[in-house]
Write a structure and sequence with these properties.
minor pseudopilin epsh fold, alpha+beta, single chain, about 35% strand, four-stranded antiparallel β-sheet, six-stranded antiparallel β-sheet, about 190 residues
């Protein structure tokens, strides 16, 4: 070194500390950047979770309808809680829009035996279930071919639309059941 630094810079411990520490403004800036990144990440996480819950509700709805049809086509025998075996006349799904519950039951031809509950699904909280026509009592599949019929309280028809919605309409999906096709179809 030709010219050594002045002695005040070389020996002053205050100058050394300034070079190794962060200023308050630098710390606040880092905290601000982290806060923005966490806010964006959190909102994305909430949206992804809502989307997953909604897709699960769609899959559960279609699944219980397909399960009813499959039972009607494959094995209409039902074993009751007391061990007796009966042949089901139909497998039907009821949709309770007030509790967002879908129930799969087997209709037993014997009037002394109650219909057997085979499966029940309560859709995720926040999912709204609606059915058109509103007076649908049940969706029924009859053995041996899984023929689809609808039971209404006051009207009749050959098509039912099940609508699932979530998040103030941010997510909405229609599932159509047509008596001639028999399978649930997602309407885009």
């Amino acid at each position: 070194m030709l010219f050594p630094p002045p002695p005040s810079i070389r020996t002053n411990p205050v100058n050394l500390r300034r070079k190794t520490a962060f200023t308050l403004i630098e710390l606040l800036l880092v905290i601000l950047i982290l806060s923005v990144m966490l806010g964006i990440g959190y909102s994305s996480l909430i949206r992804a979770r809502t989307n997953a819950d909604f897709k699960q509700a769609i899959n559960e709805t279609i699944g219980i309808l397909q399960n009813a049809r499959n039972k009607a086509m494959t094995n209409p025998e039902i074993v009751t809680d007391d061990g007796n075996v009966y042949v089901a006349n139909a497998f039907y799904v009821t949709l309770d829009t007030s509790t967002n519950t879908l129930s799969l039951k087997a209709e037993i031809g014997d009037e002394t035996v109650e219909d057997q509950l085979l499966e029940s699904v309560v859709l995720n909280e926040g999912v709204t279930l609606t059915v058109a026509p509103e007076d649908l009592e049940r969706i029924s599949y009859e053995p041996p071919m899984g023929e689809l019929t609808f039971v209404f309280t006051s009207s009749d028809g050959d098509e039912v639309i099940i609508t699932l919605s979530m998040g103030d309409g941010a997510f909405t999906q229609n599932i159509t059941l047509n008596q001639f096709r028999g399978m649930p179809e997602i309407v885009e």
